[in-house]
Every structure is written in structure tokens, then in C-alpha cells.
Amino acid sequence: MPLNTSLFASLAFWCSCAFLFSTVPTALAFVAPSHPTSLSSYTPLQSKLFATPSEAGADTSNYLTHSDIEWRLRPPEGSSWMDRLKYKLGANVVRLDNKLKGGEPPPFLCPKGGRALLEAYYKEPGQRKKKIARFGFTTSRGPSSPDIDTTIRETYKIDPPPLSASIAAIIYMFVEPDYRSRNVGALALEVISAIQSVQVVDFTVLVADDNGSGGLVKWYEEHGYSKAPLMQNMLGSPNKENGVAMIAPVQIEEGFFSRCTIKWW
Q: Cα separation of 4 and 2, whole Å?
């Protein structure tokens, strides 16, 4: 009996996804999810997560855009070579299954474990493409707490059901020195927010450590983040000893993944 390649690929697809990847609802693959909290009542007038550089009065002549950067979603740092191989195999099976069925693959898939690494690659004219930045972040819905609920109420003037709002975190952001004034960090915030939004996360949290200068905290504020003093302890920075706790609602623009391509695994 001849081998039914379509059936085989479908079977391999479901087995690989069940073993390797977190569940990403199909309906949420390309659009913003319907959040379980009352975030629709939040009016993002103060949020500048998607603000254009000119709004900050900055020199934009050397700014990069999503069309300049190749984003790569990778397993978190420290992953074994076997895990990386499994992720690669699983991703290729997903792509093959979609190709055989005439469909489009999802914009990305996140691995089990709740963490991922985002890398930015850029090609200068006449040079080879190189990695210019990397960002560690979480990809799964973290639990809420009374301090999170209070922070949301006080910052965004909304009142979600108790312990219903979910959070994810940015663990670190690193941009090579030569590219730190070229908009790379702001673009990365957009990508991370979009990924976490598809993962049905409500808010992103982080700790901004600028050694007390206030510069980094101000930068995050210009990109939609607010200080979250009640969350200092839960984010591992009591008395701001490791930086300032901050929070922002996740956002994703309509059609975002059509202009921002993410290579995964």
C-alpha cells in the first residue's frame, strides 16, 4: 500500500506539537486575543509603545525599522543541543504540514518551559548579516496577585476581577553599543509585546536598572511603561536594589506580523 504522506505529516505534526510546544490558539495566531480581564476599558492615551520616533523629538535619520531587521525566536540561553534539535525538528514538521495542506504557518511558536530568546540581525550595506541585539523574556501567562491587581487599578483606572490579570516578563535587553541609538530596543519591545499578546498575556513587567540615573526608567516610560512600586519585592528588587519595577499593557497592532517577520527555531 502506498504511503499517505499527508496523513503521515499530519500525525507527526500533532505528536511534535503536543510534545514540544505550548498551545497557541489558532484563532489568535494573527490577531490580538480577547483578554479575560476588562482591559478593553483601558484607554491607551498615555501609552507610547507604538509611538513614532518623531513624537519624542528624536533624530530619526539613523533609526532602523522592522523591515531592516531579521528577528529570530530561539530557545532560551542554556538550552541543550538536544532540545534545540527537537525544537528545530518540530518547527520544520509544522511548516511541512501547512505546506501540504496549502495553509500558512503561524507567525511563531513558543516552546514549553515559558521562556524564549529574541535575537535581532541586521545587514549593513556591503557587509555580512550579524547579530546586533538579544532579549530574554517569558512567554507564558504568569499568575496574578493582590499587588498586581492594585497596581492595575491605580495605574490604568480599571478594576479586573480579582487575581485574573496575567503577566509575563522581560528578563533582560542587550543591544550592541554601536546600535543603541538606532531604535532597536523600541522595536524589540513591540515584538515582545506582540508575542506575549498572542500568548494571551495581559501585562508585561520588568526591572529597569540604570544605577539610579533615571535615564533607562525614563526611556521605558516613553515607550508605555509605568513604575510599579508595589511590585518591587515580587520582582526581586526590594527597595529598588536591583532597579525599578515597571509594568505595561501588552499591545499588538493590526497586521503587525505582515510587516514584522519572525524566524522561529
A: 6
